[in-house]
Specification:
Structural class: alpha+beta
Strand content: 25-35%
Mean pLDDT: 90
Order of helices and strands: HEEHHEEEEEEEE
Helix content: 10-25%
CATH class: Mainly Beta
Low-confidence stretches: 1-23
Strand order of the largest sheet: 3-2-5-6-8-9
CATH topology: Immunoglobulin-like
Largest sheet: 6 strands, antiparallel
Distance between the termini: 77 Å
Shape: elongated
């Protein structure tokens, strides 16, 4: 009986040793290392190639596979605010935007500005860029839903941007309706009194070309394109 008891105790002791050894081995296993974050940074250079149309501070947004406007469809409220008053804050904060940036100020004719925007762990991102031609009622230039996934570091893409009409405000050109230096009038107005569809802009008429109540002159006319855009991946 004594022998049986000692044998049982020996088994218990061996079991404890085995458990201790197992626990010790678990503690020595290295913890999994999470993958490092990868930054995707882009320099967005916007050049104003009009004769007499300052551009509002540029709005840049990185997002998934979607568009922020479409020709033939109504403008969003955020685009309306940008196209009528030059304020890009709602545009860059739109639903689905992963990263955004704003230009520092207006871009004069012939001038340019470079804006940097960065997104983390999103290699297949899309970009939208928009800016108002401020000596108009609701004209803007931009591109939306342009894929950046194929850009390698130090590679660039260049494009020219047409002028679009947000379709949210009539192109009356009358005093008090244009926010730019040609008038200093009202910017955004929530009332929509035009076709309510985004379209290609027909251009300004001006007083010199027969629109007697217009505050614009021939210097404010523009041809398409109005903006040269260069996007460079820098990281």
């Amino acid at each position: 009986m004594v022998i049986q008891q000692r044998f049982g105790l020996s088994l218990v002791a061996l079991s404890c040793l085995a458990l201790t050894a197992c626990d010790h081995n678990d503690d020595n296993e290295p913890a999994p290392v999470p993958p490092a974050d990868v930054s995707y940074s882009y320099e967005v250079t916007v050049q104003n190639i009009t004769q007499g149309q300052p551009l509002s501070p540029v709005g840049v947004a990185l997002h998934g596979d979607a568009v922020m406007w479409e020709v033939g469809m109504p403008a969003s409220a955020a685009l309306e605010v940008l196209a009528e008053g030059g304020d890009n804050s709602d545009f860059t904060a739109s639903e689905g935007v992963m990263a955004s940036a704003s230009g520092a100020g207006p871009i004069a004719p012939g001038s340019s500005e470079t804006i940097t925007v960065t997104v983390i762990n999103e290699p297949d991102t899309f970009i939208s860029v928009a800016t108002m031609l401020v000596n108009t009622n609701d004209a803007f230039a931009g591109v939306t839903g342009h894929a950046l996934g194929e850009l390698e570091v130090n590679q660039s893409m260049t494009m020219v941007l047409p002028v679009l009409d947000a379709g949210t405000e009539a192109n009356s050109e009358v005093a008090g309706t244009i926010p730019g230096p040609a008038d200093g009038g009202e910017g955004y107005n929530a009332e929509r009194d035009d076709a309510d569809l985004v379209s290609f802009h027909p251009g300004v008429v001006s007083a010199q070309d027969g629109l007697k109540m217009s505050v614009l002159t021939a210097a404010h006319r523009f041809d398409n394109p109005a903006v040269k855009l260069t996007i460079t991946r820098v990281e």
